[in-house]
Amino acid sequence: MGNQCAVVWDESVLGYDLGGEHPLHPIRLDLTMRLARSLGVLDGVTPVPPRPATDEELLRVHRPDYLAAVRAAPTAAWDIGYGLGTEDNPIFDRMHEASALVAGASITAAEQVLSGKADRAVNLAGGLHHAMPERAAGFCVYNDCAVAIAWLLDQGVERVAYVDVDVHHGDGVQKTFYDDPRVLTVSLHQHPITLWPGTGFATETGGPGAEGTAVNVALPPGTGDADWLRAFHAVVPSLLDEFRPQVLVTQAGADAHREDPLADLAMSVDGQRESYRALRDLAERCAGGKWVALGGGGYALHRVVPRSWTHLLATALDRDLDPATALPPEWLAHALRVAGNVPLPTSLTDGEDPTFVPWTGVTESTVDTAIRDARHALFPLHGLDPADVRD
Fold first, then answer.
1. Which sequence spans correspond to the domains of the chain?
2. How far is residue 24's CA from residue 21's CA, in Å, rounded to a whole number?
3. What contacts 34, CB < 8 A, 6 or more positions away?
4. Which of 157, 367, 115, 129 is nearest to 243 (CA)?
5. Is 90 exposed, middle or buried (CB count within 10 Å of its CB: 0-12, 13-18, 19+)?
6. pLDDT of 2 strictly over 50
7. Strand partners of residue 135
């Protein structure tokens, strides 16, 4: 292993459970860790236990009245508001404690990297990127991504880049830092005209004094591996090279997969594996190897998320797995018991070749249009020529 990587994990994070048939079911985390262990990815790795975020740490991002509402919600006898008690964000027992633990797990990952104990750190339970300073949104109570970034800034880090590959726009993180030139937020997502939350247009580029620090690549429904990777490489590396972050924070939602029930992109596990390898390379190239990798969305709980995030763990640990690797029989047996009638794949691959053709400046498709729009909106703000296609 070339770089020390911390894996922040304890089964207590499974307490972030929105209940019943809610799409964000913690079984996806349990199955991922079981699969990674079964394949030897975590051999010799002692997980770093998370600790809850303190009120002071949460208040760097969230309003005091919102924290009070989250605490009160499980016992409140009235409509508490703040986005709580909705279909997306139902109230559950110990909601504040569970949410603070997820946020604290992401701070723990950031602490590992900033202290030098590790060059990289992974918190699969994190990535709750939709929570706003004043309300819950999109299955997210506290925005652990923003809380961890705010913690890094409070420790004196001058430049943090956040790259979000979830199918949904990273709206809560963007909003938190929209006017802060110290944070570059980059989101590749399904076009907001076609998917909740309806934000993340290329024209959203940062507030006064922070122009160019919000980057949005809005991709059309049906975008697969080759086009997704084409867009990523046409926009993201040049901007990170120019921004020169001291730490790279990423959100690795697995819901851009073609089987995800809540969205309409068409990536495979193979393409997602390549996206993680690209993020690892960017951390080395642009951030001195300092990489905090968080989880995120992903609602194909049994078939997709465990395979995708096992690749993420393997990538962060420099233990890259052959996509053709068979899924262990003991894992399949357990997964079948919890998945019910869901048929399961038998290997870590979807059998796709994620090779892509780099963008040459010619706009021939709707994906190329998204690339053009993002480059023309952002590159001049960083002193870059949107027509220069050299990486």
1. 5-382
2. 9
3. 306, 331, 334
4. 157
5. middle
6. no
7. 132
Using the structure block, give the residue that is written with the tokens 């233990």: 319
Is 97 in contact with 13 (CB distance < 8 Å)? no
pLDDT in tens, 91-121: 999 999 999 999 999 999 999 999 999 999 9
Burial annotation 356-387 (CB, 10 A radius, 16+ → b, else e): beebeeeeeebbbebbbbbbebbbebbebebe
Q: CA 216, 217, 222 angle in degrees (round to 5)?
A: 140
Please give the average per-residue pLDDT across 307-316, as a whole number: 98
Residue 8 and residue 46 in contact, taking contact as beta carbons nearer than 8 Å: no
Please give the C-alpha separations between residue 115 and each of 120, 124, 328, in angstroms, as whole numbers: 11, 20, 36
Which residue shows structure tokens 């992109």? 265
Burial class (CB in 10 A: 0-12, 13-18, 19+), 133: middle
Contact 89, 80 (CB under 8 A): no
The CATH superfamily assigned to 5-382 is: Histone deacetylase domain (3.40.800.20)
pTM over 0.90, yes/no: yes
SS3 183: strand
- Ramachandran quadrant class, 54 (left: phi over 0; alpha: psi -120 to 50; beta: rest): beta
Percent of the chain topping pLDDT 90: 95
Would you state the pLDDT for residue 341?
A: 83
- The Cα–Cα gap between 254 and 296 comes to 7
Going from the C-alpha of 7 to that of each of 42, 263, 295, the distances in angstroms are 9, 29, 12
For residues 56-69, one letter each, b for 16 or more C-beta atoms within 10 angstroms of the residue's C-beta and e for the rest, the string is ebbbbbbeeebbeb
Residue indicated by tokens 């922040």? 8
What is the distance, to the nearest Å, from the Cα of residue 293 to the centroid of all Cα atoms in its chain?
7
Task: Supply the residues annotated as catalytic.
Answer: 130
